[in-house]
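Q: Convert this sequence to structure tokens.
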Amino acid sequence: MKHKLIETGIQLFDQNGFKSTSVQDIVQLLGVTKGTFYYYFDSKEELLKDIHLIYIEGLVQEQEEIIQNHKTTCTQKLYEIVRLLIRNIRTKRQSARIFTREMRHLSDKYINEIKEKRTEFRKNTQKLIEDAIQQSEFKQGLHPDIITMGILGITNWSYYWFNPDGEVSEEQVVEIFVNMILNGIYKNGSVYNN
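A:
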């Protein structure tokens, strides 16, 4: 039942927003009582926290599996992380949107745990960029922290516009992003100088 409450919460929070969804809306859609809801959750906010944790913990776990594969290069690992984030648009789109859109509704009581996992994902990505620079896969002089935020920015924003059933495939978007990250878009490969 807890899983059904979480799935219903995901559906309604994505569809109507956290603020506009009541506990009554959730239990009514499931055909259960409020008592059932409060058996598993102390509040609607606790449900939101669990949705956030399930999403980010899943991402971190998959990311760590990618990073720990010693048979692949840093570049291949970066590709797989971008693929993971874009694939989630198809497989976990609602949770991803809730994660980026509804976090502001979590109090300090819950937000720190989410932020720790989010920071872990960012730091894992940054460490991968640093390793790639150290191993001379990527050029020297880069700012791994800024590169990391850029990568996460373009991939996370994709949840708002990318349609996995559209004319550009999931794999094509991954290739476009990774090519842009690794090679840039300027024809001669030069950096713009103002």
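The two ends are 59 Å apart (CA to CA).
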